[in-house]
Amino acid sequence: MPLSDVFAAVRWWAALMILGAAATPLCLYVLRRLPDRGYAFVKMLGVLLVSYLFWILSSMGFLANHVGSVLLGVLLVAVASLYAYRRAGADILAWLRENRRQILVTELVFALIFLFWVWVRAQNPAITGTEKPMEFAFLNASARSGQMPPLDPWLSGFAISYYYFGYVMISVIARVALVAEPVAFNLGIAWLAAGAAVGAFGLVYNLVAAGRSLEARRGALALGLVAALAVPLAGNMQILLELLHANGVGSPPFWAWLDVRDISEPATDTGFGSEGPRFWWWWRSSRVIHEYHLSGVAEEGLEPIAEFPGFSFILGDMHPHVLALPFAFLSLAVALAWWLVPLNELQTRSTIGRGVASRSGLLLGRIGVPLYATTVVALGGLSFLNTWDVLIHLFVVVAAYVLGHWRAAGSWRGAFVGDAALLAV
The whole model's pTM is what? Predict the structure, then answer.
């Protein structure tokens, strides 16, 4: 790997640290109910908020699409963090001092996974094949258009008609890191892998550690590390099946019964080969499902897609479903924060007024405006990152609110149903 690319990777990591630092006090304040106060998600929140502010202000015509506008977004997020620090600065500083080990482990997880995937992408950095040329075109449009929304690469004079927010995010990081788009594409893949890993680490740690003593949280840390490795690396065992099948292990009836696409027939060689269909053995790990008609006849030509993160990262695919991965973990962390609203924060319901404004005030009083606003931005960001995710994550947040209330108050009847409906709207 050229030395210039090594420096680019270091600058990319530093840019993410800057964006995360700008949002750290705000994140530790908003997600204070989590055992790690949301520290694992500071980079996701920083990238999301800076990108959103830059995008919305540029789309409204207030800002041009250049690095100064991005830095203004960083400044605005830092101002919000300053407000959070003024509200709970002593508490935040005390947590930072007492949890240096947690912070160090979190940063090491992110840095090591990021460096590993920088090395992986350096082995095959070509932006060719599959949908990568389209994704690269969207990234270039997001970085080079005069204003938001970015111009469509194929339809001159029109904006991109697609959920392109993830490409705006990558271009934002690239400009803070002073990295050109061809290098940013591959460093963006490394960021997505590391962001998903640290998001999985933080989510699992918080799920296991919630409500437990400090001694019991050691197991939570270990399970979080397992999740950090499993999400970006683990697959669906297709590679193991390919090895067994290619070397003649297993009887023909066994492979026919297993019915995995393209390896249901007896093996014809003892290796993967370099030409023909056998060369695509790695691709089949995302096409393992065999489609059938209701009559039981196999459907030819249909390939149900069953991608997993490791496949997408190795492929180097910067499609929206991959761009959304770190922020999906942020959304789940926000949902966990809703579920952890303690009993003493559930205010007594007012019997006066049954209108939307009254219910909205009660809901905000229970949850708090900062967490409510963060939830809106997180879900809204997902809807623009990968539209197919937003309804699932909205359901998770609403369900977390319902279950959290049931856990704390022992009931979900009465006006609470209206609050849940209001939240969904």
Answer: 0.88
